[in-house]
Amino acid sequence: MSVLPQETTVPANPSTAAAETRAAKLMKRRSRIRFYEIIVWIAAIAAYFLLPSKMLILTEIAILALFAVSLDLVLGFAGIVSLGHTAFFGLGAYVAGLMAQHYFAEPVTGLIVAGAASGVLGLLTSFLILRGSDLTRLMTTLGIGLMMAEVANQMAWLTGGADGLSGFSPGPILGMFEFDLFGKVGYLYCVGVLFIGTMIMRRIAFSPFGLSLKAIKGNSMRSAMVAVPGRKRIVTAYTIAAVFAGMAGALLTQTTAFVSPDVLAFHRSADVLLVLVIGGTGYLYGGIFGAILFTLVKDWLSVITPQYWMFYIGLLLVILVLIGRDRLSRWVEYLPERLSKKEDR
Amino acid sequence: MLTILFDGIAYGMLLFILACGLTVTLGLMNFINLAHGAFAMAGGYVTVVMMNRYGISFYWCLPAAFIVSALIGLVLERTLYQWLYQAPHLDQVLFSIGIVFMAIAATDYFMGGQQQLINLPPELSGRMDVFGVGVGRYRLFTIIVCAALALALQLILSKTRFGSRLRAAVDDRRVAMGLGINVPLVFALTFAFGSGLAGLGGAMGAEILGLDPNFPLKFMIYFLIVVSVGGTSTVSGPFLAALLLGIADVAGKYYVPAIGPFVIYALMIVMLIVRPNGLFSRGGR
User: Fold this and answer.
1) Does residue B285 fall inside a structural domain?
2) For chain B, first and last CA: distance in Å?
3) Measured between CB atoms, does A277 come within 8 Å of chain B?
4) How far apart are the C-alpha atoms of A332 and B26, rounded to whole Å?
5) Cβ–Cβ gap A273/B105 under 8 Å
6) How many structural domains comprise chain B?
7) What is the mean pLDDT of residues B65-90?
8) Among A72, A93, B76, B96, which residue's CB has the most CB atoms within a 10 Å radius?
9) Chain A to chain B, count of Cβ pairs less than 8 Å apart?
10) Who's near B250: CB < 8 A, 6+ residues apart?
11) Closest residue of chain B to A132, computed from CA coordinates
């Protein structure tokens, strides 16, 4: 027996009990489904019926949204700036492609295997980001991403090298729904995965676990003082994020039936950061709103200047930072808060 | 064997010149500037334009590349960078990625996407034989120039009044201002100097590294590796790191071509695990 009092599960006095139920109530209120969330999903379904000719771009948005939401778990909650999130996206994309080509064409299986593979990579590399400062983290994540790109390029016998991997076709989803030419099934599939993924991540993010991540982000030393196991939490969050990023990559492969080293390119990491910043970090739906805005802007720009849209994306980034991205995300959050204020009372 | 060592040293020296400007901005001023390669690219393109369009001698191009990049750096520092010194790292990362994207697209627009070539003056091209070791003349030139610059930089930072002002401004901005040091001026000059060095490196590296609009992204990782592995509080750390990486990279690509490109990343990760704050660091930064 240690001399120090053990953690008590039974509250010592009534006031702690009251505090605990208050905390539980607060947690519950924080995690309640907000009004704007329902609107998002209704809009996603409505888009299927209202915009039948825009399925491909909508699918792109759904995939990017899943990717961004997974990054939000690392960046928005744990506060880790990662420049190598594409490593997981790309690995998932390649694993799904190879699965479809060699083993099993059923997409959901491919999705799960891809997610698992990325999760393993995430777990292995998460130990690298535990050390050093922000700069060291940037470096290691960037290095991991570039290394993965190099691997994909070098192992041409497996990945097709710079030409990419093609000549496979994903089978019907769960053996029932065949991918059609217009991408309608693909869209519903991606939105479905996005929905399930977001709900799972939401459950994680608004649990005590998510709160402790925010505590680590706020002040890691102080959070360690109140017995938050920082390193363990970061490893877990990073691994979970990697799983979902891998799934996003797998979705891209399955809906386009093609993988190229482009899935591992640096600009993807930058894009997904931009998406998150546009949408606002730390409340998950930022990834979804950001993905919608970003894809529309990018699409619009690439029609105007097919070759130089990158310039305007860069300009957007610079302006965003200079006017203050907090101001922007506050504006984005303002609406949801207004909409859900009444429910809170 | 010795030839590879020599090439590696030349490559490492070049990396050092490219990266040492970043050592100053990133290391001393604590600003994560991923756009450093864009300044190097500017210097490279200045050289290409001057040599290929106007036929100006290579030796004049080097100082010109320095001055032009330094001026660009000065203007950008005064207009944009100076507002972000206190910003969170994420903001700095996003901002500098934005600058990189703009630089790439603008270069592509004005200069075209193809690889740029320069013709070295005859006395710098070719190889000569020194005690049975094939020594590229241009590489020898690179080593001499870079070594001189490294020495000068070290002296400026440690011995001159400007160097001590800079270190004071970095360590405690408020106290430095209270002592009458014009901190914004010191920072602006330092930033310009760092950008100028990058431009010079770009001009000299155009021959060895190649030059196209993707330069800032392609070499970003190398600069960052040099700085983060070398540690950010000294000049000698990045210098050693650059040499080590240059030699490892050249040797890796020569001896084990299949895994050559990974050598540098693997080295970086190992070194960051062993010394997360750099080779010679005075505590976490």
Assistant:
1) no
2) 38
3) yes
4) 32
5) no
6) 1
7) 86
8) A93
9) 129
10) B4, B7, B8, B11
11) B276
| Cα end-to-end span (Å), chain A | 46
Strands B133-136 and B127-130, bridge-based pairing: antiparallel
Q: Which residues, other chains included, contact B133 with Cβ-Cβ below 8 Å and sequence gap of 6+?
A: B2, B3, B6
Determine the average pLDDT of the residues in B170-180.
82
Tokens of A48: 């299927």
Beta bridge partners of A224: none
The answer to whether residue B281 sits within a structural domain is: no
Q: Which residues of chain B make contact with A142, given a CB cutoff of 8 A?
A: 220-221, 224
Q: Does the CB of A81 have a partner CB in chain B at under 8 Å?
A: yes
Virtual CA dihedral for A18, A21, A26, A29, nearest 10 degrees? -140
Domain-embedded: residue B159: yes
Euclidean distance between CA atoms B218 and A116, whole angstroms: 30
Contact B101 A317 (CB under 8 A): yes
- A317 CA to centre of own chain: 20
Closest CA to B161 of B184, B186, B137: B186
Instruction: List the CATH number of the domain containing B136.
Output: 1.10.3470
pLDDT tens digits in sequence order for chain A, 345 residues long: 444 444 445 555 666 777 777 777 777 777 777 777 788 888 888 888 887 778 888 898 999 999 999 999 888 888 888 888 999 999 999 998 888 888 877 888 889 999 999 999 999 888 888 876 777 788 788 888 888 888 888 877 777 777 778 777 777 777 667 777 677 888 888 999 999 999 999 888 888 888 888 888 877 788 888 877 878 888 999 999 999 999 999 999 888 888 888 888 888 888 898 888 888 887 888 889 989 988 988 888 888 877 788 888 888 888 888 877 665 555 555 555 554 444 443
- Closest residue on chain B to A125 (Cα): B269
Report CB contact under 8 Å: B228, A136.
yes
Q: How far apart are CA A102 and CA A167, in angstroms?
A: 11
| pLDDT for position B181 | 84
b/e sequence B220-239, b meaning 16+ C-beta within 10 Å = bbbbbbbbbbbbbbbbebbb
Cα of A132 to nearest chain B Cα, Å: 5
> Could you report the per-residue pLDDT of B222-241, keeping only the tens digit for each?
888 888 777 666 777 888 88
Q: Domain containing B177: what range?
A: 1-274
Predicted confidence at residue B285, as pLDDT, reads 39
Give residue A345's pLDDT: 36
Q: Is residue B144 part of a domain?
A: yes
Q: Which residues of A touch B32 (CB under 8 A)?
A: 134-135, 138
Q: What is the dihedral of CA B248, B251, B254, B256, to 10 degrees?
A: -60
Instruction: Collect all residues of chain A within an 8 Å Cβ-Cβ radius of residue B276.
Output: 131-133, 136
The model's pTM is 0.82
